[in-house]
Amino acid sequence: MRLARTLAWRGLSSRPGRTLFSTLGIALGVATVVGVIVLDFNTIIGLSGPAADRAVPDIQLRLPRGQTDREELYDVEGVSLMARYFQNDAAVRAEPLSSESPDIPENREWARLIALEAKHAPDLGVYSLGEGRNLATDGSREVLVGEGVAERFELSLGDEIWLARPRRPSKFVCEDGKLVKKRTHADVPVQWDYKVVGILAREQIGRRSGGMVVLVDYQNGREIYAGVHVQPLIWANRDQSVDTERLKANIASSYAFVVSKAAILGQAADERAFRTGVRMAGLLALVLGMYVIFHTLSLSLTERMKEVGTLHALGTTRGQIGRVFLLEAVLLAGAGAGLGVLGGIGLAKGLLSLGITTLGTGKHVSVFLIPWEMVLPLAGIGVLIALLGSIYPLLALRGANTMAALRGDQLSLKNRSTIGFHLLYALLLALVLPSLYFVAVPVVGELTAELLFTLLGAVGTLSLIVILSLVVPKLLAGVCTTITVPFTQLWPLAGRLTAKAMHEAPARIGVSVSALALVTAGLVGLKGMTASLEGEVDQWASEAVLEKVWVSGMPPTVFADFAQHLHQYPGVIGLEKGGTGVHTPFLVQGVAVAELAGYGPCSDDPSLLKKLDQQKGMVVSRRLAMDLAYELGTTVPLERADGQIEEFTVIAISDAYGHYPFPDERMYGLIADHYLERYYCHSTDTVEQVAVRLEAGVDHGILEAAVFDFHGGPQDIEFRSGKQVLQSHREDIGRDFVLFDVLLALTACLAGLGVLNGQLLAALERSKELGVLKALGTSSGQLSGMVLLEALIVGLVGGVLGVVLGWGMTPVVVESLQRLVGLDLPHVGPGIWLWLGFCGCVCVALVSALYPVWRTLRVDPVRAVRTG
Amino acid sequence: MSVAVEVQGVYKFHGQGSERVPILREISFSVQSGEFVCVMGPSGSGKSTLLHLLSGLDKPSAGTVQLAGQDLAQLSERRRTLQRREQVGYVFQFFNLMPNLSVQENIALPLAIAGQGMADTGRTRVTTLAKRLGLAARLEALPHQLSGGEMQRTSIARALMGEQPLLLCDEPTGNLSQKAGAQVMEILRSCCDDDGRSVLLVTHNPRDASFADRVLFLVDGELAQDAELRGPGLTVDEIHEALKALSI
Ligand SMILES: Nc1ncnc2c1ncn2[C@@H]1O[C@H](COP(=O)(O)OP(=O)(O)OP(=O)(O)O)[C@@H](O)[C@H]1O
Ligand SMILES: [Mg+2]
């Protein structure tokens, strides 16, 4: 009989309820946090595609005209690495072209030529080598070939190939709004002798053109393309520690750029805030889970003090007794963490299969990977905190009165060690756990002062409650006891017993109350935040969509005629052309300038019309201005279709023009339609969809009639009103926050479990007392009344505390979200959720008491009276 | 002859400051190995407290306790615990069985505490002890399924299991019938006579006390030196006399 093993095992198995619910508590906490992390991981991986698909770097930059020096780019904050680059076609031959081997197709193959600065190429992470080595950086003529090329010419390392550019082709270019065919005179490309030093694996760049790729140093590429103009680009990777919007703002004023979607997925400000919020919910769950094990450890010891005293009297050392409790904690925490990891993975999988991700709802993610490097530390933290908690018996034994325990005195433990343990646990939960958490789960994006402030605020609130409940539990218990007084009038015995029980176990009451309060506060705060987000959409909508109707599905329509026709009808103020955008990299749309005169900033300041029309003015949406730090007067370099850079000036920041529900984009710029045509050869004379701005209160029926009149019938034309657009935006917010609802439901379960566990342990701890009460004739009703009354009071106090806290927290959350995300959020407040949160809290407390009630009623009076 | 336990000028107070009450005053005596000593006294006179001090569970306010030649005050908490494990078998006044362990496991507990497995020798000893104490049929039962006497006998068996040289027995026959009580006394007596172990017995029962070599009387926290009775062959009447004289 191994002492520790037997005693620990018996301790767990003789109290299946306690074991089950404690394990469940830890499991639920760990599952929530693991679920969150796995979900987030797979959201990012799944939506940005696997690394093997990555054939472009994070950012592709184009220098403005006349600027060639790229060294200064190194000063741009947020860009970590860059390499000059261009790509074009190359003829590959195994034998040089000569009079003996004429240019016959069998000897030649076309391949994609990638010229990339050899010095930085490997670090960009856009190709991987199947065999061989990287290009030398001394400019020697070396080449990496794709598998396709290698197979075609049966190449192995060290072989030679000849590369040449094609004869200059004729090509079409957009010149002043016209596609012009540019003839080039015949020329004879030089062929160059290259040594194969590596073969590209068939992924990333190596997969392009079916493996028909050759990669050479940038300068060598220029040599191959000597005599032909090539547009140099710069490939760069982003510095992960700098937020994307700062990166974009830093480069947007000087360069035209394209940021790879994969590189910034989940990195936009609102996405970061969302993901950070989800992580905070995970932390909350973990703390609550650890609360449960705190209950278990601290209460199970009081209950078993007599056993511990006996063991001590029989000569068991403190170390041996400590081992019993350590083992018990290991088993509980290990089982809990194990279950939690499985549950968390299941949770993530389930949520993903429902289309719920950490970037909103309705997205399809097909991969499922488990980031063990984050999951295992998280589970480890749970186990660690639980194990540290088992130090308690050792501390307690030092202060415990063994003689009193031997006599069966339940109160033998009420002394300093209890306070010490509570302090220790408060420290663990409030400081160590959050710190470890943020080590295991890095924050999303850049740790700016605002983010730090917000995180500290959130963790601080969490800590405050944890510390309050653990270190000065008498405060909360005192409040609860006071509230019991009126109930004592109704149920004298239950009331008095409850008051006494709460008075004697302040820690249990404190932990239960604060767990409920935390979750309630979370709910209220979240709902307050959602309300503010909806408010923001309302605000935006009142400017951007409310008085508009979108007409789509029209046959190709001459815009000018259509506009003229509609203007005959009363209430039509202006028309915007739909589907006229180019991506440069943000959406730039063309507008018929004259149409804007009647509303928005142009009606306030008519001089804008001229600037827009003749001085390359640009109206940018508020989101875009925020995102790229554009202000009035900012110069915006746009890359034209021919690769040249054209500069526009921001003349207004407004959402009044240009929003289209499909695709729903709130970041865009507007330029006069004739510029769009001139620089992008994008004609906007005919349109298939328009947005019509109406006067307030105008019947949409009139517009429909006007459109049908023009087109001679309804055909497939669809109308969408501003109200509908707003509605779908609000629904989007609701859908995106489903994940939070799920997480809050889980934490509510956890808080309930905390209450349940506390009451259950109290019932076990006091089973002797309860048994004696029963033996003396206390009725079942009185006993269950006692447990329910306690739950009710805990629920009431937790609910009030949570609602007040959440209500007070909402403006802070909204304020920090505003700073973090750069949204202009109105303060709306949680509204009805104050009541719903409170009622929910009381319900959770009462439901959680049901099992303890049952357990209390099952206490065997005979056994209680018999066992000494 | 060696000394199993020796007490010198021991005082024990409870409480603090003005509420400080003396429980034991100026207690000095010793128990030789192989000796059977009985302590009698009225309820609340401090008998259990004395046993706590002897076992090193509690510390005297003044004076020394030497257990097997070791001054307990000189030992660290851990050493003191180990000393108790090796030297003392304890029958508690309130049984203190482990509620989750069966009778058999409760009896074998000292072996487990000492880090020994339930080897065959251990198992046979458990069975033998259980048989001697009339527990053979109850080996698998849990404490709450036992009668008061069975609980008491289990706790006696547990104390005997460890084969420590000193047995401290706090009213071991309180819940036993006369016959069963006498059997237990026989067993304790044979521990002294056959195994050379020492027994310190606390009891209210003169019949039990008559098994002892020596009877000490504890009154109001002090040993009544003059009343001490020495055997062998103490009779029940003799002890009754002494109790009456001390008006116990
Ligand atoms: N922790 C304590 N604080 C104050 N007084 C105590 C404490 N423990 C015991 N006492 C007192 O010490 C005295 C001696 O107690 P003890 O248990 O030793 O008596 P006892 O002789 O064993 O009595 P009984 O025969 O009834 O078991 C009692 O008056 C008791 O009230
Ligand atoms: Mg006593």
Tag the structure with descriptive keywords:
A: 4 domains; six-stranded mixed sheet; 55% helix; B: 248 residues; alpha/beta; Rossmann fold; 25% strand; binds magnesium ion
Topology:
The complex is a heterodimer of chains A (868) and B (248).
Chain A: H1 3-13, H2 16-48, E1 59-62, E2 79-93, E3 108-116, H3 121-124, E4 129-132, E5 142-145, H4 147-152, E6 160-164, E7 171-175, E8 178-182, E9 191-200, E10 213-216, H5 218-224, E11 233-238, H6 244-252, E12 256-259, H7 261-264, H8 269-303, H9 305-313, H10 318-353, E13 356-357, E14 360-361, H11 372-389, H12 392-399, H13 402-406, H14 416-440, H15 449-471, H16 473-490, H17 492-504, H18 506-544, E15 548-552, E16 557-558, H19 559-567, E17 572-577, E18 582-583, E19 587-591, H20 600-604, H21 607-614, E20 617-620, H22 622-628, E21 635-639, E22 645-653, E23 668-672, H23 673-680, E24 686-687, E25 690-694, H24 700-711, E26 718-721, H25 722-736, H26 738-765, H27 767-775, H28 780-821, H29 833-848, H30 850-858, H31 861-866
Parallel strand pairs in A: 3-10, 5-9, 19-23, 20-22
Antiparallel strand pairs in A: 1-11, 1-12, 2-3, 2-6, 2-11, 4-9, 5-10, 6-9, 7-8, 13-14, 15-25, 15-26, 16-24, 17-25, 18-19, 20-23, 21-22
Chain B: E1 3-14, E2 21-32, E3 36-40, H1 47-54, E4 62-67, E5 70-71, H2 77-87, E6 88-91, H3 103-113, H4 120-132, H5 148-161, E7 166-170, H6 178-195, E8 198-202, H7 206-209, E9 214-219, E10 222-223, E11 229-230, H8 236-245
Parallel strand pairs in B: 3-8, 3-9, 6-7, 7-8
Antiparallel strand pairs in B: 1-2, 1-4, 4-5, 9-10, 9-11
The structure holds adenosine-5'-triphosphate and magnesium ion.
